[in-house]
Amino acid sequence: MVKYSAGLWTFGQLSDRFSVYSGAAGLKEKFSRASRVQGLEGLEIIYPSEFTRDDLDVLKALLKDHGFEVSSLLVNLFSDPKWKFGAFISQDEGLRREALELTKECMEVSKEVGSNLVNLWLGQDGYDYLFQVDYAKAWDLLIDSIKDCALHIPDVKLSLEYKLREPRTHSLIATVGKAVLIANEIGLDNVGVTIDIGHAFNAYENPAESLILARKWNRLFHIHMNDNFREWDDDMIVGSQNFWDYIEFFYYLKEVGYDGWLSLDVYPYRDDPVSVCSQSIANLKKLQELVSRIDPQSLKERMLSNDQPSIIKLLWDAIF
């Protein structure tokens, strides 16, 4: 059975380049808001932005009081200006070492809060201009740094979240193929991939195919759920734009027997976060119910016959 979580940051201050749309909130207030989301079982938390090691007792008490698990910790190597030219690929050896130590610390803390997963989104590890970075050196630093961290605690998973762009115009870990390539090159069992379905859309991927690709090498560790119009990482309500992609994604999620977290990474600038998350979870459950109506054997027979009209009919008859 899959479980549902959400980024704790969703319940704090939200802003875009033009305005701030919701007030700042501390740890306790964020938990209070999250507790009103229907069907929410876990939280993904940014370390050390949303809590530090000094806050561990408070965090554990809040988790217990509200009945939440920690689905993953997300190490913050992206929001501090010091990372503006990269964290794991920084040419400043001291900064790079600091990034590695923070990641290792996050891995240690993850065990203390009952999680075995650190989501690694290296948003600043990329470039903006041609001739800005030495690609060979950057890739060597990236792979060596991830491997160094993974070796620190072998039973804590490092899940590479890929994204085409933003905040840099080009991210090094930009696509599912690159993320799987890195994990396979490192060759450790605790290095895998986070599929953010919105990032897959942005990269012009078919999320179901991305899922199968990551799963083929046992690299599917974590999933982020949201939606967008494919041009930008809008982080909208799940299933609000790309219905059929979601149907196929959940069909194959069922086929591979995924039983991990479905974590909401939504960013409701103007809408109520509690309502957005509640509706997203309701949509996730409905999508799974719709997929359960599809007869896998009948679908596979039609796929083998290359009879696309009959496939469309089968899907529409099952769902509508």
What are the secondary-structure elements, in order, as H or E?
Answer: EHEHEHEEHEEHEHHEHEHHH
Major sheet: arrangement of strands: 1-2-3-4-6-8-9-10
CATH architecture assignment: Alpha-Beta Barrel
At the fourth CATH level, what is the homologous superfamily?
Divalent-metal-dependent TIM barrel enzymes
Q: Which consecutive residue ranges, at least 5 long each, have pLDDT under 50?
A: none
Class computed from helices, strands and strand pairing? alpha/beta
CATH class: Alpha Beta
By DSSP, the count of extended strands is: 10
CATH topology: TIM Barrel
Into which percent range does the helicity of residues fall? 40-55%
The portion of residues forming beta strands comes to 5-15%
* Biggest sheet layout: 8 strands, parallel, barrel
Tally of contiguous helical segments:
11
Dominant shape: globular
- What is the CA-CA span between the terminal residues? 25 Å
Radius of gyration: 20 Å
